[in-house]
Amino acid sequence: MIRVKDLTKKYARTVAVDQISFEVEKGQIVGFLGPNGAGKTTTMRILTCFLPPSSGSATVAGFDVLDQPLEVKKRIGYLPETPPLYPEMETAEYLSFVGKLKGLSGSELSRRVDFACERCAVTDVRKKILGKLSKGYRQRVGLAQAIIHNPDVLILDEPTAGLDPKQINETRDLIKGLAGDHTIILSTHILPEVEQTCQQVIIINKGKLVATDSVENLQARARGAESVLVEVAARDGSLDLAAVQKRLEQIRGVSRVQFKTSHANRDVFEVESKKGFVRGDLARSVVEAGWDLNELRPAAMSLEEIFLQLTGGETPAGTQEVVAKGAD
Amino acid sequence: MRNVWIICRKELGSYFVSPIAYLLLTMFAVIFGFFFWNALGYFVLMGMESQMRGQMFPMNLNEEVVRPLLSNVSVIGLFFIPMITMRLFAEEKRTGTIELLATSPIRDVEIILGKWLAALILYACLLLFTALNFAFLFRYGHPDWKPLAIGYLGLLLQAGGLLAIGTFISTLTKNQIIAGAATFGVCLILWVLEWVSGYETATWAKVLSYMSVITHFESFSKGVLNTKDAIFYLTVIFVGLFLTTRSMESLRWRS
Asked: Where are the domains of chain A?
């Protein structure tokens, strides 16, 4: 549905987007992830034909953004970071104006306005002035505006930014509900959002593509080794850190033991091991030494950690693999 | 064409939903009403004086009331035009709605024409108020309507040109005040350029004076349809709108 190849966008002094390539299949929800200023908005603006690329190509539904912008625009619904609302218009009037802009007319137009209002739950503010709507409603009117002409592709730039938690959940559900009919690209710097809504992630940082893969794969790949968090406590209150560390290291299969934190007389260690089951040995070993085992839980890498690994300076061994696989 | 009309309707909507249109209409009506009252008062006085002296020199409503009033309107217009055009693009850029227009399946030219047309229609609404005053002349006197019609055509052409320049300037900034002030400055310069012809007859002075929008209104105010002057205004309109399309395009390349 969307095909981006070697896309580059240069401004006077900076390179905002640097040779990005990715593809998005029909019907998918793709999370576009990156810290602020990574080039997310620029990429989206290129896809929506708002900005022309400096080099490289982008096609939407088979139409090139430079050669046939009108065809691309017909097939795209776009919600910029701040919803593009005219404060003096009423909701229904605004949606009808946008519908006309997108080429709708007559009974189809009013049908689509009704549909979009219903879908985005803004029916109760149809006759309200947009300037007086709350942030949550504005965002939903923005979404309604994007789906008014039933586009093949929806491009949403930080659709949940600035909303309260309840509104964020509603918006996420709304986006998930839209997925069946549309291919959706949404940008965000909030990770749980991607974990919850998207099937695929594209991570960019400083204009460069860092990884593109499914959420599960990304998690699995970053976790080359298994790691477990162990919380150990001593009954009499004195725990010899070095002794615990040594004992843990002696367990078969353990490759690394790292002291994490300590509260009161409870200490938390992260134990890395090769794939396989070492938790039983771990528990037995701790208890046999006369300590208490307060907690034992897998330290599943959240997308957050992967993200930090990929975009931050530190690149542990596991990450290189992701980058390599992500790039091809 | 359909798209031009969609944009135009939307712009007219925002003029008339906000107080801008009503403020401009009221101010214009009051100012023009005052001018009209003065012009007529002077005319009546002259008429009485000529009667008292017993010498009946010919008095002409068109020459002595309509013509100076039309010239006045063309000057007042200079002050109103920046207020009409300053928000056209500056506001869309500030609120980000320009992104909606620019990502809709509609050409830049259509957006620009729609906005310019809406501005021209608002200006025409201002002129309607002057027609109200002139209607009294027709009720109580017998002015010729043809020079008046040509005068109106001239006013519309002149405003069309200045509005096109204002539209262009509005694309250059996000700040309405800056757009308005700059447009006012340019309008004023295009107006006073004519002054150099008063003391200088060299070629450069002729060129400068030719560029003045007032120079070309002269014939229209007399009720003469001069093709050269009409073409001058049409050229200004074209250049203004053309610059706007270039500016909008560069907006995409720059921002």
From this structure: 2-220, 224-298
Map tokens 């010899």 to a residue: A240
Residues of chain B with Cβ-Cβ distance to A45 below 8 Å are 99
* CATH fold of A224-298: Alpha-Beta Plaits (3.30.70)
Domain range A2-220, CATH class: alpha beta
For chain A positions 102-121, those within 8 Å of chain B (CB to CB) are 102-103
Interface predicted TM-score of the whole assembly (ipTM), two decimals: 0.88
How far is residue B232 from each of residues A34, A242, B75, B245, measured CA to CA in Å? 54, 92, 18, 20
**Comparing C-alpha atoms, which of A100, A304, A266 is closest to residue B105?**
A100
Nearest Cα neighbor of A198 from A213, A210, A208 is: A213
- Close Cβ partners of A232 (under 8 Å, ≥ 6 residues apart): A239, A244, A266, A267, A268, A269, A286, A291, A292, A293, A294
User: Residue B142: exposed, middle, or buried by beta-carbon count in 10 A (0-12, 13-18, 19+)?
Assistant: exposed
Q: Map A114-154 to HEC letters.
A: HHHHHHCCCHHHCCCEHHHCCHHHHHHHHHHHHHCCCCCEE
**DSSP characters over A18-37:** EEEEEEE-TT-EEEEE--TT
Chain B, residues 102-141, CB within 8 A of chain A, namely: 102-107
For residue A178, CA distances in Å to A182, B183, B245 come to 6, 46, 36
The residues, ordered by sequence, that sit 6+ positions from A212 with a Cβ below 8 Å of its Cβ are A22, A200, A201, A202, A203, A326
Structure confidence by residue, pLDDT tens digits, B71-106: 888 888 888 999 999 999 999 999 999 999 999 999
Which pLDDT band, with edges at 50, 70 and 90, does A303 fall under? low
- Where do the structural domains in chain B lie, given as residue ranges? 2-254
- Report which residue type is found at A3: R
Cβ–Cβ < 8 Å for A118, A83: no
Tokens 């109106």 -> residue: B152
Mutate to test the interface with B, among A45, A101, A141, A154 (most CBs of B within 10 A): A101
Phi then psi for residue A81, to 5 deg, are: -55, -45
pLDDT in tens, B108-145: 999 999 999 999 999 999 999 888 888 888 888 888 88
Selected residues 85-104 of chain A with any CB under 8 Å from a CB in chain B? 85-89, 93, 97-98, 100-103
Contact check, Cβ <8 Å, A76/B6: no
What pTM, to 2 d.p., does this model score?
Answer: 0.82
The DSSP bridge pattern shows strands A29-33 and A76-79 to be unpaired
Q: C-alpha angle with apex A226: A287 to A328, nearest 5 degrees?
A: 175
